[in-house]
Design brief:
The chain is 45% helix and 19% strand. It has five helices and six strands. It is elongated and about 50 Å long. Strand 4 and strand 5 form a beta hairpin. It is an alpha+beta fold.
């Protein structure tokens, strides 16, 4: 249910439009959206596009703790919970843990959206 609000927004939009782009409130536009932007999305020929976060499968926690040795106890606990969440909800691709970055979602198929929700 973590991204239920995003699902509902996209579902409502797809009832009124053939395709939609969902962007989180905190996504910054670094250049104006032009026709090339939409052309690139259509070139993928995919009804769902979501960027991925990737994290190394081996040594993620060691790397995080060595990179920031002064992490507070709370941040270390958070990092451990984050890793557990990645292991539970992510998938492995080329020795990386991958999870969707749902700050940007392109969708043109409500059935696919419903399948993901199920």
């Amino acid at each position: 249910s973590f991204w239920l609000h995003k699902y509902k927004a996209i579902e409502l939009a797809l009832k009124n439009y053939d395709e939609v782009i969902f962007m989180d409130w905190d996504v910054d536009c670094i250049k104006p959206i032009d026709d090339n932007f939409y052309k690139k999305i259509k070139e993928k020929n995919s009804s769902l596009q979501i960027p991925l976060y990737t994290f190394p499968l081996e040594g993620y926690l060691d790397y995080a703790f060595k990179r920031s040795p002064k992490l507070s106890k709370e941040w270390k606990e958070f990092t451990g919970l984050h890793y557990d969440s990645l292991m539970k909800y992510g998938y492995i691709l080329n020795n990386y843990l991958c999870v969707p970055c749902t700050c940007f979602i392109y969708c043109s198929d409500i059935n696919l959206l419903n399948e993901i929700n199920d």
